[in-house]
Structure formats: structure tokens, C-alpha cells
Amino acid sequence: MNLWILAILAVPVINEVMSNPKGQESGSLSPGDRNEFIEIYNSGDDTLDLSGFKIRDNQEEDTLLAFPDEIKNYFP
Fold first, then answer.
1. How far apart are CA 45 and CA 2, in angstroms?
2. What global pTM score does this model have?
């Protein structure tokens, strides 16, 4: 008899994206900010290691967003 144990690993899920919304630039974080965001969902119980994760518009271009090494779960 063989016993297999399947470990379900936490993976980052891009849950929601708000890019370039219509309207005036009204964000408070930096000039030109229009309240753009990316929501990443952590499906597991452990903290996700996002070091090295980047969002780019092209591999040859500059990184648009580099994630911090760790993002806590703020919404239980």
C-alpha cells in the first residue's frame, strides 16, 4: 500500500487590478497617482515570500512595481 501526502502550498493570486482609472488624478501617495492598485490574495495560512516578484510591461523595460519581501495578511 502506498501513502501519498499532498501538500497544498500557498500561492499568490492576483485577485483584483485597478489600472489607469478614468478621472482626475486624486491619489495621495505620489504625484500622478490615480488610486491604482493590485490586490494579491494569499490562499494559505503562511506569510507569502514575494521577494523577486515584479510587475513589468515588458521584460526589456524597467520594473513598474517590485514587491516588498513580505506582505502581511491585513484582512483575516
1. 28
2. 0.52
